[in-house]
User: What shape does this take?
Amino acid sequence: MYRPPSPRRPSLLDLIILLILISGAGWLYYQATTNMDYTWDWSVIPQYLFRYDAHQERWVPNLLILGLMTTIRLSVWSTILATIIGIFMGCLRISKHRVRRWLGGAYVSLSRNLPPLVLVFIFYFFVGEQIMPFLGIEQCVDNCAPATKSILEWLFGPTSQLASFLTAVITLGIYEGAYITEIVRSGIDSVDQGQWEAGNALGFDWWSSMRFIILPQAVRIVLPPLAGQFISTIKDSAIVSVISIQELTFQGMELMAATYLTFEVWITITLMYFGLTFGCSLLARKLELALRRREQG
Assistant: This one.
């Protein structure tokens, strides 16, 4: 049975490093509170998290929480799309056919060697302004019943921005899909070659061996790095703020421009991002430990 290693007691070097970090943080705080020509005002921040709606007679999320929810929606849908792309392209990467391998490699090279900001602008001006109007998504949403619109808003955010939201999801999905492609490829490659031979001995063709023997084993291997890639997607989602997707970073920029509370706003947003990604990191760690215990009995 798997037992995690016992934590070692902190050494003298650990204590010195910790002391240096605390001293550095204290110096920065002293500089920020005494030498900066800046008036701190934390009292206004809570009202941008939640506000009391007199019409509904209850507390409702305000700008920052709404931005955080959009970031979560964006990350979840982008990761789902990236996983689909990654599995498909990962299978192409290990194909016996040269053209398929070339297609998978070209996709990975192109996506990973372009700045994500360039991809955002390419897909925003091409997908957003050319394909989305052709698909008529906004007209379909306008003709939906109120109940359907409520479901769409819960899943994707405000329906008035659905076309831009889908453009951002496609952009992030393609960008993150290149990394998931390599995760899937390495996971399949790590399955023992004897498993392929076992499939051949049972009379399976390539696809049947992949479906019934290789992929179930590869999934257990790639789940921990996939969880890490989801955290990376959360952080990368901030880049779509440049096309006015109202996620957390965008709301922070709008709030900073309206209140001039630069430090309070960005410290709050930093803590919100950290809370979200750190929580996901803990879940990914628990998943990894659970899978390791299961493998080792």
Summary: Strands lie at 50-53, 58-61. The CA atoms of residues 46 and 159 lie 27 Å apart. DSSP finds eleven helices and two strands in the chain.
